[in-house]
Amino acid sequence: MIIVIQCIDKVGIVAAISGVLAQQQLNIISMREHVDTQENRFYMRLQIEQHADESALERAMQAVLPQHAVISINPVPDKKIVVMVTKEYHCLADILIRNYFGTLGASVLAVIGNHATLQDICKRFDVPFFLVSHEQKSKPEFEHNMIDVIKQHQPDYIVLAKFMRILSPEFVAEFETKLINIHHSFLPAFVGANPYKQAFERGVKLIGATAHFVTNDLDEGPIIAQQIIPVNHSLNAADMMKAGKEIETSVLAKALRLVFEDRVFVYKNKTVVFE
Amino acid sequence: MIIVIQCIDKVGIVAAISGVLAQQQLNIISMREHVDTQENRFYMRLQIEQHADESALERAMQAVLPQHAVISINPVPDKKIVVMVTKEYHCLADILIRNYFGTLGASVLAVIGNHATLQDICKRFDVPFFLVSHEQKSKPEFEHNMIDVIKQHQPDYIVLAKFMRILSPEFVAEFETKLINIHHSFLPAFVGANPYKQAFERGVKLIGATAHFVTNDLDEGPIIAQQIIPVNHSLNAADMMKAGKEIETSVLAKALRLVFEDRVFVYKNKTVVFE
Amino acid sequence: MIIVIQCIDKVGIVAAISGVLAQQQLNIISMREHVDTQENRFYMRLQIEQHADESALERAMQAVLPQHAVISINPVPDKKIVVMVTKEYHCLADILIRNYFGTLGASVLAVIGNHATLQDICKRFDVPFFLVSHEQKSKPEFEHNMIDVIKQHQPDYIVLAKFMRILSPEFVAEFETKLINIHHSFLPAFVGANPYKQAFERGVKLIGATAHFVTNDLDEGPIIAQQIIPVNHSLNAADMMKAGKEIETSVLAKALRLVFEDRVFVYKNKTVVFE
Amino acid sequence: MIIVIQCIDKVGIVAAISGVLAQQQLNIISMREHVDTQENRFYMRLQIEQHADESALERAMQAVLPQHAVISINPVPDKKIVVMVTKEYHCLADILIRNYFGTLGASVLAVIGNHATLQDICKRFDVPFFLVSHEQKSKPEFEHNMIDVIKQHQPDYIVLAKFMRILSPEFVAEFETKLINIHHSFLPAFVGANPYKQAFERGVKLIGATAHFVTNDLDEGPIIAQQIIPVNHSLNAADMMKAGKEIETSVLAKALRLVFEDRVFVYKNKTVVFE
User: Fold this and answer.
1) Which residues of D are marked as active site?
2) At what angle do helices D237-260 and D195-202 cross, to 10 degrees?
3) If you average pLDDT over every residue of chain A, what do you get?
4) Contact criterion met (CB < 8 Å) for D188 and A187
5) Which helix (H) or strand (E) holds A179?
6) How many other CB atoms are found less than 10 A from the CB of residue C66?
7) Distance between alpha carbon C1 and the CA centroid of its chain, in Å?
8) pLDDT, averaged across chain D
9) Concatenated DSSP letters of chain C
10) Is D21 near chain C, with CB under 8 Å?
11) pLDDT of residue A189
């Protein structure tokens, strides 16, 4: 059983939580805790050996925790996701493979592409692919088409696996805290378009990728995971893009695992991640 | 205030500990906990905002914890160490620098060298250097000379900063759990002498270094930290040794920081490290 | 055009090679060179801007190089491979995906499995899968069945993508210098079976994976690439295995790219790799 | 003997260079070469087994190379440097240690500090320390004082080892291509002041350091080396700064080694580095 808690910090909060568990003879296998003293905020992730009545346990917890505590007892272990893509295959393929072999920690309900490029790979894995072209449409119309598809599937998360169109604040607001993006740079370096070209021109010696939740500001949401690889003068912008795809795949996979295992807490524009 | 606890695991142990703290109105700033379910063993490191009467707190803790619990409340923040060296300077110099600028988390009481090579650098930092030559002496005699110097200083830890003589089980027994060594390979690869030559001959693509507590078996004690760097065909054994010194310095520095901050627990031949 | 050369070293060898190229008005875009002074051996990889008559160029090169020089001018850019697997999917799936999207640098002609587990994923990618069970067969018989399948496809390389049976010296001899294996540890640590269990029991802080050519000695062939990830006390042997799969996939992918791009030279038990 | 060459690229350039060497019976031990096809620029670093008359060799080289080729034959192996500091010790101490033990690849002629904080550590190593305060002086006056000290020592390079005042374009112009700086972030992220505070507020999961040549634009010169370390929610800005110092030290040490070994070429705003 997994329990995740986020609330205002106060003296005795760990005692209160663990008291409730001890009372119910529940054994803590692993406990991760963080207090953000600047924000006066408390975060906890508990793994419990036994199972217990969830609603009774939640009531008991709420009774001892500060007001507005966010408690999730045994959050759904197999999340449901919709994936949005454009033409690049690497992140989507990795997700489809893990989904197929049951190691993703989530089920892919559908893939939305604004190009047909990745339709065939989805078909090979029997995953529904929805082609929602942005062509000859207004942006609101385009986004409404996608929103329709997403709502129809009611996913826990929407994964932007190299979806290359900028989403409007309206779209983002619709799915707040549910949108996970992979950005092809080491944020906050090289925000925006063509980060590999920017990296090449700047002559950097490392390139990176960043998985983050999406908020209104472009490439500005809470960061979940980042990773880098060394590069040198022998790589041109295209080589960097190729090398970068490897870490994009790997950092998105890591971020999704962390989120799906309920190891990521969001508060304001930052995350607490219990790796 | 720092509290570290190691004991047998049982249901309610976190509640018991945090109950004692809550009762005394002590606020937990950070808590790291690990249960080794295979060994049924519980480890905890707590950082508390306030100060409290230590012996009263320890009594209260002992009263609620399982028998034979090892509790350390506010372990001495500035450890005392003796460093043992041979001829290579890199680890010792790093320790002396941090010691001089007050960022080591420990005080260097003395340096013992079986060669005079590093005497001058110690003198420049006003750190006592004891030359204990192994020449024209039996091993027991040599070790007794060193034991005398060490005992005279009563250090919390003895750091083998590239001390290149093998120590007898008797010596090790004398300072059990206090001896920290840097081994110049990624253990358990390349145990014993000349690991860089071994690594070169095997044609490995990474070389490493390992900081560990010393037990009777050569290079076999509990590992505290390990690190690697990439190498390739262009490096010969001497180049690898040179490159390796950088990570030896860095991994020993990391291990010492972790130990001095009371983040390392030892049980049997393994460590729990709350980084 | 790619040119790779391996031969005995002598004074003037670079002048000789580049003289031939200059004479034919061929421009060197990139040149990597290594002299192993201990073995008196010369290695070179050249990328040439223009195309040229390959056999004429090879004759001109042979005329100026030491005897027994191994020259390969414009080695086949799209290698052909056979993949051997058991039950674990991660390395195979990565290869199949890259093969499908044309980014592997090689074509997968066939997959041989000693279990049927991975038959379906091959079918989804229209890659022929040959089930060669080891059950109720002598080892020679089992291996002859596999050799038959392999020979029928005439691959440039045979990739052991988590093939979990030990191959006989006879099998290895049949395909010398063509067999590439992924070993699930940081060789030479944890040779043999169950490296993650060994790593867990030793309490290491890093685990690794090694891609290497296969020779007669178990896990002893020339190393192509190695990689590690940090681990800690919170991972048990099963967690380490799970974490390890990620680097197994990644290090095999890297090794294959290097081999397929003709960046890897083998001499005795070591490799020269021009990354 | 080391030879470094930078010039316009043309067909036959490698043949020309190696022809000259072969003619003089000089054996190439290692050769690194790079052609920047976009800029049509050629870079080479050669290590030669034998010694030869340098001026004769240079004349022979100039005769076969394109106009304006920059050739350096056997560049001074022990560079001379002046180090500029403010209050932080970590980079300076590392340089002083390597200088003292003869492994820096350069000699520290003098240290200039705008505070007296690091005077004592220099004295302990018998390295002249010049206190040039910026207080109660105009910026031009302050810089002229420093320029005087520097010119008096005629260093090959000036290392800004955590020198925390911004230098004017005039100062930079005075020592063009000789100024090496360590910036405490992963450029181009977090340009300017307080990068650790910026990194903390952005909630990044990696922090970095960048060693670069200094040009007129703040933090905008050619990058020599970069490195990162993982961070997480448990570190505040001060912790990040502390952790960052470790990589600042390490990345500056690496960059200096590369520069002092004549492995770094600068062209426009980028470097070619033969590691």
Assistant:
1) 219
2) 120
3) 94
4) no
5) strand A179-183
6) 13
7) 21
8) 94
9) -EEEEEEE--TTHHHHHHHHHHHTTPPEEEEEEEEETTTTEEEEEEEESS---HHHHHHHHHHHSPTT-EEEES--SSEEEEEEE-S--HHHHHHHHHHHTT-SSEEEEEEEESSSTTHHHHHHTT--EEE---TTS-HHHHHHHHHHHHHHH--SEEEESS--SPPPHHHHHHTTTTEEEEESSSTTTT-SS-HHHHHHHHT-SEEEEEEEE--SSTT-S-EEEEEEEE--TT--HHHHHHHHHHHHHHHHHHHHHHHHTT-EEEETTEEEE--
10) yes
11) 79
Q: Give the whole-angstrom CA distance, residue D162 versus residue D158.
A: 12
- C27 — contact with chain D (CB < 8 Å)? yes
Chain C residue numbers touching B208 (CB-CB < 8 A): 206
Cβ proximity of A239 and A246 under 8 Å: no
Residue ranges of chain C assigned to CATH 3.40.50.170: 79-273
Backbone angles phi, psi at A225, to 5 degrees: -155, 150
Which two tokens mark C185?
């540890």
The residues with which D47 forms a beta bridge, in sequence order, are: D2, D30
Interval B20-72: pLDDT, tens: 999 999 999 889 999 998 999 999 999 998 888 999 999 999 999 999 999 99
What is the distance between the alpha carbons of residues C183 and B22, in angstroms, rounded to a whole number?
51
Which chains touch C (3+ CB pairs under 8 A)?
A, B, D
**Per-residue model confidence as pLDDT tens digits over C112-157:** 999 999 999 999 999 999 999 999 999 999 999 999 999 999 999 9
C-alpha to C-alpha distance for A196 and A233, rounded to whole angstroms: 13
In the block, tokens 């680097």 appear at C247
Distance (Å, whole) CA C147 – CA C153: 10
The pairing of beta strand C270-273 with beta strand C70-73:
unpaired
The 10s digit of each residue's pLDDT in B191-240 is 777 888 888 989 999 999 999 999 877 668 999 999 999 999 999 999 99
pLDDT score of C186: 80
Secondary structure of B172-217 in the HEC alphabet? HHHCCCCEEEEECCCCCCCCCCCHHHHHHHHCCCEEEEEEEECCCC
- Cα separation of B98 and D242, whole Å? 12
Q: How distant, in Å, are the alpha carbons of A113, B16, B35, B71, D266 from that of B63?
A: 62, 9, 20, 12, 68
Peptide bond preceding C188 in cis form (omega within 30 of 0) = yes
C223 with B232: Cβ contact below 8 A: no
Comparing CA positions, the residue from A162, A96, A147 lying closest to residue A125 is A96
Return the CATH number of the domain spanning residue range B2-73: 3.30.70.260
Query: What length does chain A have?
Result: 275
Element (H, E) at A71: strand A70-73
> Quick count: other Cβ atoms within 10 Å of Cβ C61?
19
Token pair listed for A249: 């795949």
Return residue ranges of chain A for CATH 3.30.70.260. Answer: 2-73
Assess whether the previous peptide bond of B66 is cis (omega < 30° from 0): no
What is the interface pTM, i.e. ipTM, of the complex?
Answer: 0.94
Total-model pTM: 0.95
Cβ–Cβ contact A40 with D under 8 A: no
Provide CATH code, domain B79-273.
3.40.50.170
In B, which residues are within 8 Å of A274 by CB distance?
none
Query: Which residues fall within 8 angstroms of residue B10, CB to CB, at 6 or more apart?
Result: B42, B66
